[in-house]
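Predict the 3D structure for this chain.
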Amino acid sequence: MLKTYTYPRFEYRKPTELSGAAPRRHPVVIVGAGPAGLTAALDCRLHGIPVIVLDDDITVSVGSRGLCYAKRALEVLDRVGVGDAVVDKGVNWSVGRTFFGEGEVFNFNLLPDPDHKRPGMVNLQQYYLEEYLVRRCESQGVDIRWKNKVVSVTPDGDKVALQIETPDGIYALEADWLIACDGARSPVRGMLGLDIEGKVFMDRFLIADVVMKAQFPAERWFWFDPPFHRNQSVLLHREADDVWRIDFQLGWDANPEEEKKPENVIPRIQAMLGDGREFELEWCSVYTFQCRRMSRFNHGRVLFAGDSAHQVSPFGARGANSGIQDVDNLVWKLKLVLDGKAPATLLDTYSDERVYAADENILNSTRSTDFITPKSNTSKAFRNAVLQLARKHAFARKLVNSGRLSLPSFYSQSPLNTPDTDAFAGDMEPGAPMDDAPVALAGREGWLLDQVGNRFQLLVYTDDPSQVDVGGLAALRDAPIPVDPVVVSAQSGELPGVRVLHDVKGLYAKRYDARPGSAHLVRPDQHVCARWRSVDAARVRAAVARATCNA
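Done. Predicted structure below.
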């Protein structure tokens, strides 16, 4: 018997509101204890925001579900304190292979550049991620209320009123702000009468989690028209604990309930493996591709994130990754609004930036779906011709689309950016998610992204730390919205009251096109929002005002 996961059961506790405690208004209430909701809760605690999480279940998600966690999501998970657990347990991979019929068409590498802390992708069953997030939430004082089902949401001026059903009865809560992370069928969205628009694709896929001993490499394998599943596609991924995720395209006419039955699933897997090896079926499900989103993600004091705000087809790992990046964008803005340091219009930019990201994901996901599931003989003939050409010709490989994998969005057109006035090369423009680089702090080697985040910071580059005006930089901390100065130096060194990061391999200078005196202002979510060739305190203050809608 191969080892399978034991689902934890979390403790339901009778809410204090049902035990005679006086009703109390809460700054933030989150609905949904999935990856987006739990990450949002941890980010709230990092920013000092008390938070309650409501979930109508008492355990983690069943099955692998959101399986692939991309480099940017891993960096966010690092910031909230669970990145190491995910990477240590998960299966790191960067190589993907695409097959047509019986032969390989081509392969790709997600992370060809060395010297990043995190790999291109880590595969880990969603139940592990959720368990790690729950344990981290418990350690950080997050109030997670299991078996608490939201049955009514009523916006009421400067607050949101909720009715919550529990095994001990119904009680009321009030929140300054409500974050809805309650999934693709979002009850909160339904209670508010809000729509989600887009496209449902006419095809069905079977997901099977299979426990088996196999020596296949830790790579993403995708087949078009394989001999074991003719005229359809198949995806294979390795997970933790000798579990393998297999997706079989079924076609629109397939009966979901029949296809999920073990007597129908097992023969498909046997045909794929073809070697009579033993395996156990751990979990299976049938799903339909959808690419949809809400028109806006903020509606008064109710904020939507993750699958409640947008849905994409699973090929490309854009679901959970995008949800994690949603809350990465949201919480720091919400903190400034709660503290009265930014107007509520800052939350409009949460919607604007993440709607833009959702549209990128939907576009890429739609193109992948159209390639994987051609709906006419002509489109299928084109798809097959591309696959045949891709075996020998590089130009055709760019057209092969078995799921363009998740990449972070560049908020290049965001109004929060300060446009460049100086010439820079490279990708680290205003709006860009920060590139990582190896650095050393006080002689201890580490990573740039572990040293930034959760606040505004100004990264100033120098050849020699002794040449930096420490007093001028330190004064930035005294602004209404403080800016933490960080010196990045080609040489090791120390400065009183200011962190100095040694650019040990010169990769910060290369990736940020940094020269002595160059400065990059970065947001709490590790996106660049301004850059200059020299530091001027007035320009820094103006850029922070712009980045917080205070300009």
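The chain has a mean pLDDT of 93.
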